[in-house]
From TrEMBL:
InterPro entries in the cross-refs: NODB_dom, Polysacc_deacetylase_ArnD
Keyword NAD: no
Task performed by this protein: Is involved in generating a small heat-stable compound (Nod), an acylated oligomer of N-acetylglucosamine, that stimulates mitosis in various plant protoplasts.
Superkingdom to which the source organism belongs: Bacteria
Listed name of the protein: Chitooligosaccharide deacetylase
One family name in Pfam for this protein: Polysacc_deac_1
GO cellular component, as recorded: membrane
Protein family: Belongs to the polysaccharide deacetylase family.
Coiled-coil stretches: none
Protein source organism: Gymnodinialimonas ceratoperidinii
Molecular function as annotated in GO: hydrolase activity, acting on carbon-nitrogen (but not peptide) bonds; metal ion binding
PANTHER family listed in its UniProt record: CHITIN DEACETYLASE 1-RELATED, GLYCOSYL TRANSFERASE-RELATED
Length: 268
């Protein structure tokens, strides 16, 4: 759809010294994962990514949340980077020492590479949210892969390493395409378990109330760093989550993978 040549073999992600198979095996072991101080129960196999009782809608290779005994959760921000709101959000996160996960749109990443560099430098994780934010339902295999591959390349161009996780726009991606991305790119699909519907602009207080009230152990919180009201909601939201006793981790950490900002990753 984008007129790009289709290269099925071209862009798998590998971690240097930690091949995909080894990552999968380590994460599938769950309790034996060496990357966290206490075990998470995420399990990673080609047919059931997130383990028992965590795939609420029956999709393969999909993470909605993680079962864990630890009071950890991940807050994620989609659709950026935004030239004003994202740096403001980064300031808020830095003041609190909180690391988040940003699912960026490729064409925005190309426009604002310095913001991506700041994300990496401050310990955040960058995920893939497609190139141009289409509803991928109805797209061909080639088009889906092109949307992901162009964005992976844009992130590499900005910060020297590719994303390892993807989130489809609107959460829409056929199971067949989730498996295609997992099997050919090593990228699971990350959805969410807490959605404040911040894109409807309900007001900062409501965004805070919804997130703080609904967060849980192993939660994946969805928000958008392109909305002023969302960013304005974050100080109270982050404080409220902390007061409930939860600790923030990045998406990779939540599923038992190494911290993305510390891995050696490249496209092959
Ligand atoms: Zn989005």
């Amino acid at each position: 759809m984008l007129g790009q040549p289709f290269e099925f073999q071209g862009k798998a992600i590998v971690g240097q010294g930690v091949g995909r198979r080894k990552i999968l095996a380590g994460a599938a072991a769950g309790l034996a994962t060496p990357f966290l101080s206490a075990p998470l129960t995420a399990q990673i196999t080609p047919r059931s990514f997130a383990g028992r009782n965590t795939i609420d809608r029956g999709e393969a290779a999909t993470i909605l949340h993680v079962r864990t005994a630890e009071p950890v959760l991940a807050i994620t921000f989609d659709d950026g980077p935004h030239p004003y709101h994202t740096p403001h959000l980064l300031d808020i996160l830095a003041e609190r020492g909180i690391r988040a996960t940003f699912f960026v749109i490729g064409r925005n990443a190309v426009r604002y590479p310095l913001i991506l560099q700041r994300m990496l430098a401050e310990g955040h994780e960058i995920g893939n949210h497609s190139w141009s934010h289409p509803d991928l339902h109805g797209h061909s295999d080639a088009s889906v892969l092109s949307q992901i591959d162009r964005t992976n390349q844009a992130v590499v161009d900005a910060v020297g390493r590719p994303p390892v996780l993807m989130r489809p726009p609107y959460g829409n991606l056929y199971n067949r395409h989730r498996m295609l991305l997992f099997e050919t790119r090593g990228m699971p699909t990350v959805l969410w378990s807490v959605d404040p519907l911040d894109w409807q602009h309900p007001g900062s207080a409501v965004v805070t109330q919804r997130i703080v009230g609904r967060c849980h152990r192993g939660a994946v919180i969805l928000a958008h760093d392109i909305h002023r009201s969302t960013v304005r909601a974050m100080p109270a939201t982050l404080s409220g989550i902390g007061e409930r006793g939860y600790r923030f981790v990045t998406m990779s950490e939540l599923i038992g993978w190494p911290r993305w900002d510390r891995r050696r990753l490249r496209l092959i």
